[in-house]
Design a protein that fits this description.
Layout: H1 2-33, H2 39-78, H3 81-94, H4 99-116, H5 134-150, H6 152-171
Helix pairs in contact: 2-3
Length: 173
């Protein structure tokens, strides 16, 4: 219906707006957590972890959902008074087709929040930076394309990553 569709658009808009703040903040934090010579490696690991978790999550999603349903059904059959009362009350919602995804996603966010809260970053002074000059940007873009053109393996890797992300983006909706 129209209201459901509008709600989906609003949620997607809010998520994308939040990501405009999240990704730059995450990328700015990495150099403050590792030594200067390890920044490229840390960025690579962050990207690889993100992509691998998406790939593994998509492949394992059916098994995870089936396992979640088995756990909920097992808790309902266990007949432990406190558990039965709370799970039984929410059983229709917990056993709905998409409920497992919502519950597991919420639990993963809570776990991530708990782990993230343990990170401590000491304040560092402002780094001196040169003003942005457009001729430097143009030169770096040209150098990037030259480097890309000269390295066949890199072209293959980046093409594969593009196709994987494109395919994942096409599957999610």
């Amino acid at each position: 219906t129209t209201n459901s569709l509008l709600a989906i658009y609003v949620v997607v808009l809010l998520m994308e707006t939040a990501s405009l703040f999240f990704w730059p903040a995450r990328n700015a934090l990495i150099p403050r957590l590792v030594d200067r010579e390890d920044v490229a490696t840390a960025n690579g690991l962050a990207y690889t972890t993100q992509q691998a978790s998406m790939l593994v999550g998509l492949m394992a999603s059916s098994a995870v959902l089936a396992g979640f349903e088995a756990i909920v059904r097992g808790l309902m059959r266990a007949d432990v008074p406190l558990v039965s009362a709370s799970v039984g009350l929410f059983a229709p919602a917990l056993l709905a087709p998409r409920a497992a995804g919502v519950v597991i996603n919420a639990m993963s966010f809570l776990f991530s929040a708990a782990v993230t809260s343990t990170i401590r970053v000491e304040a560092v002074g402002e780094r001196a930076s040169a003003p942005l000059r457009l001729e430097l940007v143009g030169r770096q873009v040209r150098e990037s394309f030259s480097f890309f053109r000269e390295h066949r393996e890199l072209r293959g890797l980046l093409t594969t990553i593009f196709l994987a992300i494109f395919g994942g983006g096409a599957m999610i909706p």
